[in-house]
Amino acid sequence: MKKKKINLRDLKPKEHQGEHSHDGGHNNNSTEVIFDFRTYLPSIFSLVMLIAGIAIDYFDAFPRFSGWIRILWYAIAYIPVGFPVVKEGWESIKKGDFFTEFFLMSIATIGAFVIGEYPEGVAVMLFYAVGELFQNAAVKRAKGNIKALLDVRPKEANVLRDGDYKSVSPEDVNIGEKIQIRVGEKIPLDGLLLSEKASLNTAALTGESKPDSILKEAKVYAGSINLESVIEVEVTNKFEDSSIARILDLVQNATARKSKTELFIRQFARIYTPIVVFLAIGVTFLPYFFVDDYVFRDWLYRALIFLVISCPCALVISIPLGYFGGLGAASKNGILFKGASFLDAMTKINTLVMDKTGTVTKGVFKIKEIKAIGWEESEFMKYLMALEEQSTHPIAKAIMEYKENGEDFEAKEVSEIAGKGLKGVVNGRAILVGNKALMIANAIDVPTETESIVESIVLVAIDNKFAGYVVIADELKEDAKETISALHKVGIKNIIMLSGDKDSITQQIAKELNVEKAKGGLLPEDKLNEVEILKKNPENKVAFIGDGINDAPVLAASNVGIAMGGLGSDVAIETADVIIQTDQPSKVVRAIKISRSTRKIVWQNIILAFGVKLVVLILGAGGLATMWEAVFADVGVALLAILNAVRLQRMSWN
Hints:
There is one protein chain. By secondary structure, the protein is α+β, with helices and mostly antiparallel strands. Among the domains are: 171-241, Calcium-transporting ATPase, cytoplasmic transduction domain A (Distorted Sandwich); 335-361 and 477-594, 3-Layer(aba) Sandwich (Rossmann fold), CATH 3.40.50; 363-476, Calcium-transporting ATPase, cytoplasmic domain N. It is 47% helix and 17% strand. A seven-stranded mixed beta sheet has the order 10-22-21-20-11-18-19, with helices on both faces. α4 (118-142) runs parallel beside α10 (313-332) and α12 crosses α13 (394-400).
């Protein structure tokens, strides 16, 4: 995905925008749809006039209510709801687009007036206007979750300049500058925490309601809310490169990537509509040659009914709305789909390939076991820590988290033996810390029990005697086991783990998680090769879950690439199709469920619309359906489809 420079002022929620020619809504150039009483006034006025007119007709309350007075009454009722549609149809014709729903509605209702069916003409337009109001309300509801995300845009930044904090636009802050965030304020830019600690609400970014407690020099992201005390942050990204700006851009453009179903229906509507128009002309004139008692007015009425029924409103409104509802529901759950096409693709996945480190494990080394031989554990660890303090290796950092304070143990003459470990002198004792090769090189016997340990192991010798070992392991994420079980339940039977870590460690993790197939010791190109082999079988639809950095080639090659913890990863945002904004693999299961629910609702709407329309079209052509049935087949079905699509906003996928 090409990276786009983002201007803060461009990131306004865009309600109900875009062209409309059978694409599900009026052509609105405004960026917001205002829902207030004035929006409903035209429909209310027309409804009152229509009911009053029908009542006068039925009860014959005013004998003079006939002729031009009756026509004028219904014309006045028609104009508030009909004029905008007729105007839109005319504008479309001027652009060369004849066969729009506006054209169909205009011809059908004006035709109804021509043959004297004034109440039906008003009713069709009135119901259509009410349908548009329902549609706009549904769109607003569907966009609510995404608008909430857009509302996390930071408005200002308090930046330290000339010894004082000044309020400026986040776009005007440079990398390396220091910003201050007060309690309750949003962090305006990505950066490193300079304060000792902070408690942040990242719900708008990750979907997680639990506050995130972080320590000095940890990364913080724009859009997070500071909860406890005033904090200071050093800016590491310009606003246009910040995580929140990239995510906003992603969400804004998500609906541009249409699903195949959505594209098919829109193409179908453009072919279907002119066919129906010519069929309506045929219904009007062809019976003249085949029917003895041909009455032009009767067959024109049937043709008008045919036209009203033929409007593909339910399809072109409810299908995009269904997909948009799915995208909104996913974002509410901390899952970002880069487009409706990936909602569809996710429903077809039957093979899931996953990375290990950072995906099902935390990617952070922790001490799993300490075995001291001939020494007290605390003293043994002090010797070890004194030496490891000189190293920057991740394993050394894990050892330094041990609870003992070893300030009275000082290491001297420390040197590194390449590929083996460290040696040095601590409080007058010779210390060796490293792997088995280091021990063998110094003629130190290592117990055979260490050979069965698959995790990373640090062997320790004191004064040329084996003193014990420490086992270091990467922790499983809390929901890792639950995720594999849930994936099996949703029908993903083929689950494969590929890792760059040692094969023995990979196999052990796979066994713990009940993953049947696993391979370790793989380079990024090896993982890519494994996925390509799987894809050669056309029955395999492969999703790959990785951290979005080393696994970028595989993310790009998979049918669906899913990035874990993508909030802070440039490569994840650029490469993956689906981004899990937290480090929870269980969200992948939720993404699959949301995708399936969305597709189910879309197909329900397609079947509903086609089924009802087909029945009423046949009845209308045969003279067995009136304009009222036509209204239901068009606007009524559209309303039912919209209400069905809105259900996505109320569903839960736990």
